[in-house]
Fold this protein.
Amino acid sequence: MLDLAIIGGGPAGLTAGLYATRGGLKNVTMFEKGLPGGQITQSSEIENYPGQVDVVTGMELMDKWPSQCQKFGMKHDMSEVKKVTKDGEVFTLTLGNGETQEAKTVLIATGSVPKSAGIKGEAEFFGKGVSTCATCDGFFYKNKDVAVLGGGDTAVEEAIFLANICKTVYIIHRRDEFRASPHEVEKMKKFDNIVQVLNHTTEEIIGDNMGVTGVIVKDKDSSETKTLDVHGVFVFVGRDVLNQTLIQEDGSFLCDTNEAGEVIVNLKMETSVPGLFAAGDIRIDAPKQVVCAAGDGAVAGIGAIGYLQ
Ligand code: FAD
Ligand code: NAP
């Protein structure tokens, strides 16, 4: 029986593990199905983590977080958690291999994943020219032309990253104004090889058996369409929360969620179910920042200690 089972090893889960073990919990396991560190490890640069003055990659930022937690006794299980249920006072986690694990408290810190833009050709060419990770796949398009879809911080930041590798980066956004912070937009404007295609929708990603050859875009005012010849399309149109572990046999969620499936928590990161906490991108009103996810994790770790007392 675990004191605390942490599901997800991103900034929220890792920080919860640090605070819970340093705060005296003996039996804490973090379940992380991939590499610990979370989605920020896909980012080419982070410059807004307090105290981290030099711009580093997401991978560099997260490098030491797991070992810091393990130093205080947190265990890491590389399993995917499929489901969490609660019977009486006890939670049961069902793992990917079918085994189960009981816990007195649980933290859901499963974060979020890239949203699909729902464009024709997007699924067909995924992995064959369509990508959601510039750090992972950008190099395949060295000196080639690529398109970035979206107008948020991720789209703008990753367009800048790609501009250092690729010949031309078309950033296609459905509105006249970017959602991204003005600071990032100003930075992007300094790149001659980033072409802004604003007020355009992406109608289709086209290609052949070798992969992507272009994107068809439509001017929202004139309805005119044109084809941009590109070999890669990077889709950055937001994120969906990963809440599948909370789904019960009857299709309901274990705890209260909002219409977007985000977990409803109070200021102590407590959900509607006693002993069940949620932290980071998965919770309602999450600012979706590393520092905020880490802060949530600290609150949840302290909360789990309080609950067990
Ligand atoms: P995540 O980081 O998403 O971690 C969740 C973890 O849970 C993952 O490792 C996943 O593998 C694991 N997991 C999920 N489901 C299961 C399961 N069922 N079983 C086991 N493990 C599971 N934020 C900033 O502050 N500054 C930035 O500059 C910045 N840049 C970004 C750039 C990019 C490209 C992206 C994608 C995000 C960026 N962000 C940035 C946002 C930041 O990364 C997130 O807000 C933060 O990582 C959220 O942390 P989290 O712990 O809630 O979730
Ligand atoms: P986001 O802020 O939700 O932006 C998504 C963008 O995609 C928006 O511009 C949106 O257009 C567009 N979009 C959505 N659906 C679309 C569709 N179907 N077709 C075409 N375009 C579509 O997502 P994000 O950029 O991934 O950022 C997620 C969170 O992480 C944000 O809170 C962000 O601030 C944070 N983040 C922060 C940093 C940083 O601090 N440096 C870096 C990366 C991410 P509209 O604008 O018209 O809605």
In short: Residues 48, 117-118, 149-155, 157, 173-175, 179, 236-239, 288-289 surround NAP (ligand 2) (CB under 6 Å). The chain has two domains: 2-113+239-308, 116-235. Residues 290-308 form the longest helix (19 residues).
